[in-house]
Amino acid sequence: MRQNRKTALLFLAPFLTVFVAFYLAPVCYAIYLSLFIRRRVGLGPAKEVFGGLENYIRAVQDTDFLNGLKNMFLFGVLQVPVMLGLAIALALLLDQSRGIFMKVCRTTFFMPYGIPTAIGALIWGYLYSPNLSPFNQILGALHLGSINFLSPGVILISIANIVTWTWTGYNMITLFAALQNIPKELYEAARVDGANRWDIVRSIKIPLLLPTLRLLFIFSVIGTSQLFTEAFVLRPLGYVADNITPNLYLYLTAARDANYSYAGAMAILLALLIFVLSGPFLRRVASS
Fold first, then answer.
1. Domain count across the chain
2. Is residue 133 part of a domain?
3. Most distant CA pair in the chain: distance in Å?
């Protein structure tokens, strides 16, 4: 038994080393940093002194951080259902297709996921540019005015469009793979009982996709909490507020303001919030 444990630890050693070095250690260091505050003593430079929970108290009262959280929730409520709904529809369409048409569509829909996030956001940034946007040129040709896709009231929708364009194909492929694992005998039995295509989709395919869909929903919620690259890339191209997402705000707090302790406290609070939100769904998926 002891020899088996040593062998198991030997195989786990590479993973555990990377996990401790690049995940556990940074988290512990962020928690340690979050307990300090920048305080000026007399006329000298500001110093880091132990402040206990002061950074956490400040974070829950910070209107910029709270606004970023509000945008994150609004983004998730609007974007995640649209993205997963499109993924389900495309997966069901592919499941009905055959031959070269299915392969071409599958590759085309999945292609945006293969483009690096920063490059995809940069491409869309120029498509959103007021002076270069082909969308505004079409609207202008139709005498319908123009839309500033980088304005404060529209920027969140513009970012949601980029994320949907990037991740719908990935979710579609995952759901399509789940559809391929459904036994064909179920479809044949349903047809014998007089079920049409819609009956099969509603009574067989969608119910059997629910476990995969729940897992994708959890991943999408976690991905929403990590929203950063799109806002960061679009920031120089137009008006993107510093607090458009929590990650952008805490990044600027650390990189621009050099306030690593406060940024660490906000990061810990954000991680705890996402854990509380996704934990029940994850347990349900694991038990189903």
1. 1
2. yes
3. 86
